[in-house]
Amino acid sequence: MTSSRPPRPPAPRPEAARPARPRRSASSRPAERGAAAPQERGTPAPGDGQDDVPRVAARAEISPEILPPPGPPTAGGAPRSFAPVRVVAPDDVAPPAVRGSIRTAPVVSPTSAARFAERARARRTLARRQVIGLSVCAALVAGIGWLLLGSPVLALDAATVRVDGAGTVVAVDAVRAVVEERDGTPLPRLDTGALRADLLDVPGVREATVTRDWPHGLTVALVAREPVAAVPADGRSGYSLLDQDGVQVGHVAKAPAELPVVDVPVGDRRTLRGVLTVVEQLDPDLLAQVGGVSARTQDTISMKLRKGARIAWGSAAETHLKAAVLTALLDSEQGRKAKVIDVSAPRMPIIK
């Protein structure tokens, strides 16, 4: 029957009985064995790029404060003890240098109050930066706004205003007088719509376009109401000059030689518009031969040529075709001798 007691370890030999082995240096070992010398643990091999790292020689010492209590005596009578060994680097040797830079984490405050204070300071710093950024942006916007809307940098100079399309009826001085009322106004603040409405009130202006000419000027493009006929003035002597829309654009004592005199019933705007439509569509060479136009209704338009012949025109329909037929007849010998030419039916003209 085997015993349950564990076998007793063999007793260690006395230190005196052990023969002393001669210590051999590390340089002599490879020569004796005929092989490469082993490297010490933790020591970089030569030639691996770390020769500049100083090697630290360690010494072994026993820490007496951590020694365990002595165990039972051995078979030889010597007490059994265990002495843990720790490696201690000499104090006069600097730690090995480490290549490169190592980023360490920021030190966190150890207490909750300190962490809360740090967070509060971070929030205040962020708020100050936001306030400063908003203030700078507001100052820039205010400066740009004043530069564009309040400063004289982009102010209107009435002396540099250009007026085009005045024609023979519109007074350029009257147009400039309207523009001078806005002299000194910054161009971004200038109300071009209101200026255009004021220009349309100038006599003879049919249409107007206002364009900013940076940095100080304006360009005013006009469509003038050119007179196409002269009408005897109502209740006074002289003649009123009318454009193609029947708007009076002037008054003269004598009818211009280049304009036909129109005779229509007073107040009959429909008949007057029909007559002016025919006159406005005539070729300039043919219009120069017309001395007068009369009509009782819009369908009974007739013309009186300066050479004496009378033209029965009819309505304002097919005016271009009637004008082409009349021009061809006037160029013929029979047409030059005719006293009456009827082109109311342009495809079947009649010469008398």
Walk me through what this model shows.
By secondary structure, the chain is α+β, with helices and mostly antiparallel strands. Helices cover 28% and strands 20% of the residues. The chain has eight helices and 16 strands. A six-stranded mixed beta sheet has the order 11-12-13-14-15-16. The protein has a three-stranded mixed beta sheet with strand order 5-7-6, with helices on one face. A hairpin with a 3-residue loop joins β6 (205-213) and β7 (217-224). The termini are far apart.
How would you sum up this structure in a few lines?
This protein is an alpha+beta fold and 352 residues long. It has helices at residues 28-33, 112-149, 172-180, 192-200, 269-281, 284-287, 319-331, 333-337, and strands at residues 59-62, 71-73, 79-80, 85-88, 162-164, 205-213, 217-224, 229-232, 239-242, 248-252, 261-263, 290-295, 301-305, 310-314, 340-342, 350-351.
N-to-C span: 168 Å
Count the beta strands: 16
Structural category is alpha+beta
* Mean pLDDT rating: 78
Reading the helices and strands in chain order gives HEEEEHEHHEEEEEEHHEEEHHEE
List the helices and strands and how they pair.
Blueprint: H1 28-33, E1 59-62, E2 71-73, E3 79-80, E4 85-88, H2 112-149, E5 162-164, H3 172-180, H4 192-200, E6 205-213, E7 217-224, E8 229-232, E9 239-242, E10 248-252, E11 261-263, H5 269-281, H6 284-287, E12 290-295, E13 301-305, E14 310-314, H7 319-331, H8 333-337, E15 340-342, E16 350-351
Parallel strand pairs: 5-7, 11-12, 14-15
Antiparallel strand pairs: 1-4, 2-3, 6-7, 8-9, 9-10, 12-13, 13-14, 15-16
